[in-house]
Amino acid sequence: MGKVLRGRSGRRRGAPDTKGEILAAARQVFGERGYDGASVRAIAAAAGVDPALVHHYFGTKEKLFLAAMDIPFDPSAIAGAIMDDTSGAGIGERAIRTFLAVWGQPAGRAPILALLRSAMQNEAAARLLRQFVTRAILGRVLSIFEGVPNGALRAEAMVSHLIGLAIVRYVVKLEPIASVPDEDLVRLIAPVLQRYYDGAFEQD
Amino acid sequence: MGKVLRGRSGRRRGAPDTKGEILAAARQVFGERGYDGASVRAIAAAAGVDPALVHHYFGTKEKLFLAAMDIPFDPSAIAGAIMDDTSGAGIGERAIRTFLAVWGQPAGRAPILALLRSAMQNEAAARLLRQFVTRAILGRVLSIFEGVPNGALRAEAMVSHLIGLAIVRYVVKLEPIASVPDEDLVRLIAPVLQRYYDGAFEQD
DNA sequence: GGCGAAATTCATCATGTGATGAATAATGCG
DNA sequence: CGCATTATTCATCACATGATGAATTTCGCC
Hints:
- The structure is a homodimer.
- In chain A, α1 (about 20-35) packs parallel to α7 and α5 (about 75-85) packs across α8.
- Chain A has about 200 residues and is mainly α.
- The radius of gyration of chain A is 20 Å and the shape is elongated.
- The first copy, chain A, is about 70% helix and about 0% strand.
- Chain A has 10 helices and no strands.
- Chain A has helices spanning about 20-35, 40-45, 50-60, 60-70, 75-85, 90-105, 105-120, 125-140, 150-170, 180-200.
- The structure holds a DNA duplex (30 and 30 nucleotides).
């Protein structure tokens, strides 16, 4: 039997982007188990690296989390899709389409899932999610709801539906909603979301 | 100084419903931190009891959780409120009203919050929540959606919105939706939910 | 009133956690 | 080449966790 493959001390050869691999592993594991549930050891294992190296690069688990949550996804892409049209017409469909595009691929949903899962177990993470939703989502969408009566409330109601959808479809995996094709969801949900915009202008 | 108040070994006097107190504490702590986050020690402390007593009564943490999730709330009360009328008319308003009634008081939301939080960190709990939603909610509401095209899907879409609302309002506490009066929420959300029923009969 | 059963706590174990510091190996600048 | 710097692992700490078994105190039946 030759030498043991892993376990040799000291620097490795070449110039592997170890820090990046740790970050990627962190996003995945945080996404699967949330902040408290993800152990530094598990993240290190997923990155194929000694746990101490994680601390060497990021100092503390919390800093690693913050680093992993940074640049969660391309903000301009999302904002762009939603803001394609600054009028309220079709905002329901644009919202659900953007949502499905981001959550459809694991890489896209990992950071938000991590934030969401963590927010359920950790007040600090809840604060983080709050400010993320406020800044990254509402801050942009709100311009559409600007001048709309109860605009903020209506926008948040839309967001709350999408968060619930994320949980039911991607976490709890309730059938049939977990397996239904994207297009069916768009047809089902878009007009309902749209009502949060249109409803503002109806008589009471 | 007199004797120490707590810490004396052996059976206590009187006939305190200790088992019930542990269950209540379990519901609260599980509700606050989820399954993984709630330690047996924390639950015991909340019940004013030694951790070993928890194991004495319930054997294992998992069994305690199952016991705490049992009879989470009066099923007939909820089903009754939703089923008041077996027609689809007004189902949107009845759904949000029932939701607010249950989640409005801590005792009502604790068990479901516990299930929800735990489902985000624990696959086993996710399975539990899935079957709870299926049996306790959908199983009853579905009779209204019986014969409705895509009835199950529409019912689940409604539920997903309410779950998202629960998270945004009671966990993440996003403002203004976290503080808005119940009646305002009813006015805002009821007609939107209603659309999941009415929409089934519109032309495509 | 005595005695078995139940209720309650204490002491303890094995395990997993985040974190730290020292040791080893490769890199790259001079 | 030589040597400081960086990347990497190992050994270890202090602490929290779920769980178990023995010891202590009260209850309730006969």
